Amino acid sequence: LETGLIAQSDSIEGVGLDAAAMEELFNLPVGQVTQTPIKVTDGYIMAIKKEDKPSEPKPLEEVSDVIKTLLTTEAAKAMALERCDELRAGLTDPARVQDVEIGLKDTVLTSEPFNRQVANSGGVINDDLGINPDLVLEAFSLEPGIWLDRNIETMDGFALVKLRELTPADEVEWLDNKDAYLEQLTNRKLGEMWQSYLEVLYV
User: Fold this and answer.
1) Which end of the chain is more exposed for a tag (fewer CB within 10 A), N or C?
2) Strand ranges (DSSP E) for the chain?
């Protein structure tokens, strides 16, 4: 895959690099290959930087509206994160959770049912939560009625998540797809082990 010239703030379609990975790529000298594989949506990649073009700032009048929007968005997200932290403290406290849930009853959104396969197809749960494969996987580690003990970042801010109901898989569907499910689970675990190994080496 050859991307051509991109900005560090851009995303590479179909690859799924996080901010840390993009920073690593942009810090590479021209002509050098990454020293360790970089984690992407479906596994790992090795990359080489072929060209480096210094950024050229645009005139302020061209970007002033964008800057205002970004600053407003960042301020709103910071406020949302602070509010989520406050609420999560109550939602994960057995003595307070009922009162906090009552206060949130008019703002809670319920997603359509989804299965683990959503994580392998990009993690799109609904328009509000956006693409979040990690959330899909974490949801299946929760007990029904329990709130996740961390905030989930979304496209527009942050969300607090609770598993409402866990429906057993259809037995016929499970038998028909068992081998594929087990292969996906094995590949994911191997990927996690490989990533842990690389992190140890990196440290």
Assistant:
1) C
2) 38-40, 43-45, 152-153, 158-159
The Cα–Cα gap between 63 and 168 comes to 52
User: Considering only CA atoms, which of 165, 125, 160, 129 is closest in space to residue 145?
Assistant: 165
3-state secondary structure of 177: helix
| Whole-angstrom distance, CA of residue 16 vs CA of residue 35 | 19
The Cα-based distances of 180 to 14, 43, 115, 125, 188 in angstroms read 22, 17, 14, 21, 12
Q: How far is CA 12 from the centre of its chain?
A: 15
pTM: 0.48
Amino acid at residue number 18:
D
Lowest-confidence segment of 11-20, 25-34, 172-181, 190-199 by average pLDDT: 11-20
The distance from CA 79 to its chain's CA centroid, rounded to whole angstroms, is 20
Tokens of 96: 């307070």
Q: What is the pLDDT of residue 82?
A: 93
CA distance 60 to 149: 42
